[in-house]
Design goal:
CATH superfamily of the largest domain: inorganic pyrophosphatase (n-terminal core)
GO molecular function, one term: nucleic acid binding
GO biological process, one term: potassium ion transport
Number of strands: 18
Shape: elongated
Helix content: 40-55%
InterPro entries: DDH_dom, DHH_sf, DHHA1_dom, NAD(P)-bd_dom_sf, Oligoribo/pAp-PDE_c-di-AMP_PDE, RCK_N
Largest sheet: 6 strands, parallel
Protein name: NAD-binding protein
Strand content: 15-25%
CATH topology of the largest domain: inorganic pyrophosphatase (n-terminal core)
Distance between the termini: 58 Å
Domain DDH: 154-296
Structural class: alpha/beta
């Protein structure tokens, strides 16, 4: 049984004693303050009135597992520490330095104690963390940048936004409004994935679905979340002046912006926004908290993919404000028939080489069914990497997944398809889109199907070749014989949207 001995009981000791008394094992507090002894006994905490610095006080005490030296005075603690170390050489001793330590005291504490609690250092560390750490400085800079906006702010997610992008946009709107700036969470494209629609509808998130023809004149400032370049994976002008960029993807070109925070170590942009919400120190709206936690869980595959300590910290910050009943509803939407059909076609049409499976699902009406199909293929025995693609009008959309440790899907898709389209993403989750201008000139369905058949073969071969080619070497086969099928487009920076 663990035996914890507390010598001296000042201000810090009272807090520690409350915690220690709740744990299993024995505890004994020795202090020369009789009023404290009486109070502790009233709270059913064993306590004894004696001088904690006198070696005779502990001469006949059983050997403790842990000793906490905890009076408010440095001289008393030093004497108690010396007596405790002499009497119990093998015990773990945690010593509170007290409020008036000099250099000699610090040296002696360092020599005898296993752990030292230094109030001056603790206060200094907290002050640095609150005002001078990189994250604190970023929060201050973001607040200043937002406060300087004169007019309305557009917070723009990437095209066809996923939960991470949606949640991040909503969170930045909350932060902007907390400093008096009116803001809109905006996106281009569609929110077609069942879970994403459920998230927006159940949490009643306010989003503006913009069209390319919409005027941007009503906005005085622009922020990009979960992507970092205007005109790349959004439909903003490429020369748009950007005020704020917050993202966790690696950039593939110069990132414009007055304020730029790229956290490639974070598993989700929602993690970064959660940290800002915490730094701004205001109550997090339950809808925003639920969206952010869901965004983190989706991007990290429930904390199993590309996860970092920051993601767990963000989850702990959000947890008290999350509406768990709505979160469960979001995570368990019914699958639409078209999505199930796409998954079925992917399983039926798959071509497998070793642990890599590629499948064409033909014509699609919902591009968000592709990543779900890629996930389902990945769940099959013996498959570690998947690519699923489908055709919509004159576009081909690709979605890839992998759990193989030696494959970087983002680089693989860029190697295979950057020259004939646009590609990007993470090591384990990526996407691409290719424009088939030649389909628009096809005369009949037979010709269309013939072209589609050729394109399917090209995509499969390029992906398999990119997988087999060593990292950093562009794919060369099929280039001259197939590039004429495709029209070059800009890079997407978020593989999920592709």
């Amino acid at each position: 049984m663990v035996f914890r001995l507390v010598l001296g009981c000042g201000t810090v000791c009272r807090k520690v004693t409350e915690r220690v008394a709740e744990r299993a094992g024995r505890v004994l507090v020795i202090t020369d303050d009789e009023s404290v002894v009486e109070t502790l006994r009233d709270e059913s905490v064993p306590a004894r009135s004696a001088d904690p610095a006198d070696p005779d006080t502990i001469a006949n005490i059983d050997t403790p597992s842990v000793i906490f030296v905890a009076s408010d005075r440095t001289d008393v603690n030093r004497a108690a520490l010396e007596a405790a170390r002499s009497r119990f050489p093998d015990a773990v001793i945690v010593a509170y330095l007290g409020g008036n330590a000099v250099a000699a005291d610090r040296d002696r504490f360092a020599e005898l104690a296993d752990r030292i609690i230094d109030p001056t250092a603790a206060i200094a560390d907290q002050a640095i963390d609150e005002t001078a750490s990189p994250s604190a400085e970023a929060a201050i800079e973001l607040r200043d940048r937002l406060a300087a906006i004169d007019g309305r702010l557009a917070v723009v997610a990437h095209d066809n936004p996923d939960p991470d992008a949606i949640a991040s946009a909503v969170a930045l709107v909350d932060i902007a409004e907390s400093v008096g700036v009116t803001a809109d969470a905006c996106y281009f494209g569609d929110i077609s994935h069942q879970e994403n629609r459920a998230m927006v509808n159940l949490l009643e998130l306010e989003l503006r679905n913009m069209a390319p023809a919409d005027s941007l004149a009503e906005y005085s400032a622009f922020a990009l979340v979960d992507h970092s370049r205007p005109g790349v994976n959004d439909q903003l002008p490429t020369d748009l002046h950007v005020d704020i960029v917050i993202d966790h993807h690696p950039p593939r070109g110069p990132v414009p912006g007055e304020f730029v925070d790229l956290r490639q170590g974070a598993g989700a942009t929602s993690t970064v926004l959660t940290e800002y919400l915490d730094r701004f120190d205001f109550a997090i709206d339950p809808s925003t908290a639920t969206a952010l936690l869901y965004g983190i869980r989706v991007d990290t595959n429930d904390f199993t993919r590309g996860v970092s300590p920051a993601d767990f910290r963000a989850a702990s910050i959000l947890s008290p404000s999350v509406d768990t009943s709505i979160l469960r509803q979001i995570e368990q939407p019914s699958l639409e028939g078209e999505t199930l059909e796409t998954i079925a076609r992917a399983i039926k049409n798959r071509v497998q080489r070793d642990s890599v499976a590629v499948a064409s699902v033909g014509r699609i009406g919902d591009r968000d069914a592709l990543p779900q199909a890629a996930d389902q293929l990945l769940a099959m025995e013996g498959i570690e990497t998947t690519l699923v693609f489908g055709f919509d009008d004159e576009m081909v959309f690709l979605s890839a997944r992998s759990r193989a440790t030696d494959i970087d899907l983002g680089e693989t898709l860029r190697d295979g398809f950057d020259r004939i389209g646009s590609a990007g993403g993470h090591a384990d989750m990526a996407g691409a889109q290719l424009e088939l201008g030649i389909l628009g000139s096809a005369d009949d369905e037979v010709e269309v199907e013939s072209i589609v058949s050729v394109v399917e073969e090209v995509i499969m071969n390029r992906f398999f070749e990119a997988i087999e080619t060593r990292p950093g070497v562009p794919v060369g086969a099929y280039t001259q014989t197939s590039e004429w099928l495709f029209t070059q487009r800009d890079d997407p920076e978020d593989g999920e949207s592709a």
